[in-house]
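Example (one chain per record):
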Amino acid sequence: MTSGATGVGGTLASAPGGAHASGSHLRLGVLAGSPNAGNCERLARIAAVAAGRATDEASDAPMPSVEVTLARLRDFGVVPCRGCNACARTGTCVLFDGESRARACGAAGGDAGAAGAAGAAGAGRPDHAACCAGGNFLDLFAWLDSLDALLLVAPVYFAGPPAQLKAALDRLQFLWARRYPLGLTPALPRELRRPLSIAVVGSGGDPFGHDALVTCARSALRMADFELADTLEVIGYRAAGADPAADEGFEARVGTHAASFARRVAARGPFSRRGQANAAITAGTTITASALATPSSRAARIGSDAREQEL
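Predicted structure:
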């Protein structure tokens, strides 16, 4: 059994193990959900390395291999949801066209990575402003959809997520539309959803806590079939005047948590719908008026959303 950590949107931390043939392993993603290269990214790197080593070092029964990939939210330049509700009629997002052009622009410049790289590749072309205005949500979503499990390392901003992370979570609205108003993707029972772990990072202690951060992430990622398995509080990390030994303790806790999560993912097995939603987007699938459900059945499905969130 082998495992490794690779980077999305840049070369990041890597763990021993090397590459694997596509489909021959489980995929665990670690997302640094901060808008800057700070504490969250540092801890996400530690988590990725620890998770990548976890199944190699397991001394019990052999486990499936786990490939660990590390992505930085700041690399994707996600454009916020417009709130137009068009996805409830078509099953797709009006921003996808622009994002597809941004992806093509980056590829033409020899770099299909982050939004910033796409912008640099297209700079100077007459259509550059229009084609790269879409950001790279499609790349972020393709990565999320390829996973069997996700470890989100996110900072607390006034008890909730930073604006950039909230924007990415809101863009999953089209999945809600495909599930409820349009009835295209039935909800999975809890035991079949892919595991989600959230590490909440803060240098101080917000008196209002961090429940809003966890709730926002849990609600939106549920539409992508992620089920919250656990959370880890990393509050006080690298705070002003903090004892370096305390910070080392936080880092050790994050590594231990990530390793444990990776072993649980390996024991659980692959996610049945991995890659399916992204395949539908790539195919450009939209919904015609004749395929829409009746108003009564649409209302029933939307009403079931509240019940599913309670499960």
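Caption: DSSP finds twelve helices and six strands in the chain.
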